Amino acid sequence: MGHDAVIEVEGLTIGWGPVVLMRDLAFDVPRGEVFAILGGSGCGKSTLLRHLIGLEVPMAGRLAVLGRDPAACQGGRPPFGVLFQSGALLGSMTLGENVELPLRAWTALGPTARAAVVRAKLALVGLEGFENHLPAEISGGMKKRAGIARAMALDPSVLFLDEPSAGLDPISAVELDDLILTLSDSLGMTTVLVTHELPSIFKIATSCIMLDKGARGIIARGDPRALRDGSDDPRVRRFFNRQAAAAPVVGGGAG
Amino acid sequence: MSDAAGTQLPDEGGAVIALEGYLAFEGAGALWEDLHARLGLGGEAAPRAATIDLSRVEGADGGVLALLIQLRDLAKRRGAAVDLVAPNDRVRALLDLYAERMGRPALHPPPCKQGILEQVGSFALRVHEELVAVLEFVGRAARASAAGLARPRSVPWPDVARLLERVGADGLPIVVLISFLIGLIIAFQSAVQLKQFGAEMLVANAVGLSITRELGPLMTAIIVAGRSGASYAAELGTMRVSEEVDALRTLGLDPYRHLVVPRLVALVIAMPLLAVLSDLLGVLGGFVVGVGQLGISPVAYIERTRQAIGLWDVGQGLIKSVVFGAAVGMIACERGLSTKGGAEGVGRSTTAAVVTSLFALVVLDAMFTIIFHLYGR
């Protein structure tokens, strides 16, 4: 176990009902990393993430986020922020009210102070002036950015992102990558993201694990660029090569 | 491109079957039947070995090649070698594409047919699971409600106000209309019978008692179950499938306290208010018939109604309507939060919420009637 690991996973077995998806997972996420969980569709990446954020209870094994069992954190002040795939903003509330929700529940700030924090958090993700918009009135990329603003409302030291660039156009995806990079660099946050979008992995991830459905476990770990260039495992090479063609296109979109 | 004539089969002695032209998907059915017969795959006997010559096939739709591969595999499984030979490059590429993928076994076994005993068993298990889930829901909702009572500031009151408007104020017109018409109908129907005994005056009793004790609260609850129960289940179901409920949990907020409690509170407050209104409008419906149709004087009708209805009659209705409100709210929220799947799941939850609510309302009403009969007046 690393001395400064923010997330520690040991002997973790996860699944749905009687179906085991992944067996005996073990990894650490050191502080300050942008850590990617990679793998093909349906291999259990998002399920692993749901375990890391405490929404599911593991079949076996131990996991700790900031030294605590995430499932036991339910109902208390959350030690981490989560961006869901769709943004998961509450549709009946404005963006401002969405970001205000955790502030109202977990801080002693008065209404004026809360409004100031909300404006600052929305400005951080490039949504200044949008506090009175409803989620239905903004685009998919903006919803995700607002989701990040809400996830960061309480200044968590760990941010979890479920497929942040899924369903976005290449420009929005690159903008979101830039935002994640900026936030993790300037705030020193540890970021864990689930994705199969290699362009964004090569751009922002400092380390990764790759899950495989057949192996029911981790088949590779390390710096994604090093894995792409030097892995001997044909499954890893196939995963990276299959998407290699997409990388320059999106990279080019960034200008 | 489609050339149905290309699927004709020149007979080359049974061992070699030559196909030619473009094998279009439109002719696939005839080709399948024909090859099936030629290879002897239809009967019990072992199929015949054959070579299917594709050298004169110019091109083919993917579906036709999938069928050829299927025929080859079928024959192979029954001990006969069928070869697909000499395709041109384009056809070979397609054949390889399909052959590689079709060889993979299904990841899940096909759902097997259950016997009656198994069906009964799995139904019982499902009912058991549902009951446990419902009990868990009731427990959590009760705990969240108790926490809300202990710390009223933790209840999101702005949400309650918004929901009250939707459940109560927006539901007024339909409750008013239906209650008035029900009063009218009861007055008409009872007048026909009571007239035979010269007791038209008792219409006021019939309308007043049946509306305040039974129909006012029950009809209101049925309307609310259809309007608000359905909308609660659909709203919470959509929140559930779009991960909004999960998002609340990761923010450390209890979905029961933030979603269920405000809805329960809104219904428990709105339902008796609507029921009182329903009582008034029902009696008004009877009044219109009594005064307009039966010639009873307005003062006499009102006086008769006042004598017939006691405080306890209205009280019974109000007690019922509070419980009805809680029941509709619990059922709708439970169905909504247990939604699985996508749009279809939301539809199923909404239907289940309304149907279960209506069933529960009638059962509860029957129970109340018995209890009030035994222990009340």
Keywords:
heterodimer; A: 255 residues; alpha/beta; Rossmann fold; 2 domains; six-stranded mixed sheet; three-stranded antiparallel sheet; 9 helices; 38% helix; disordered C terminus; B: 377 residues; Transcription Regulator spoIIAA; four-stranded mixed sheet; 12 helices; 71% helix; disordered N terminus
Question: Could you explain how this protein is built, in words?
Answer:
The complex is a heterodimer of chains A (255) and B (377). Chain A is α/β, with parallel strands linked by helices. Chain A has 2 domains: 5-79 and 156-253, Rossmann fold, CATH 3.40.50.300; 89-151, no CATH class. Chain A has 9 helices and 9 strands. Chain A has helices spanning 45-52, 95-106, 111-124, 140-151, 170-187, 198-204, 224-230, 234-244, 246-253, and strands at 5-16, 19-30, 34-38, 60-65, 80-83, 158-162, 190-194, 207-212, 217-222. In chain B, α6 runs antiparallel to α7, α7 packs antiparallel against α9 (255-292) and α9 crosses α11 (311-337). The longest helix of chain B is centred in the middle third of the chain and has 39 residues, at 203-241. The radius of gyration of chain B is 35 Å and the shape is elongated. Chain B starts with 10 loop residues before the first strand and ends with a helix. The relative contact order of chain B is 0.09. At the A-B interface, β5 and α2 of A face α8 of B.
Sequence of secondary-structure elements of chain A: EEEHEEHHHEHEHEEHHH
Figure out the total of helices of chain B: 12
Q: Mean pLDDT of chain A, as a whole number?
A: 86
Strand order across the biggest sheet of chain A?
5-6-7-3-8-9
| Relative helix content of chain B | over 70%
> Greatest interface and its residue counts?
A-B, 26 and 14 residues
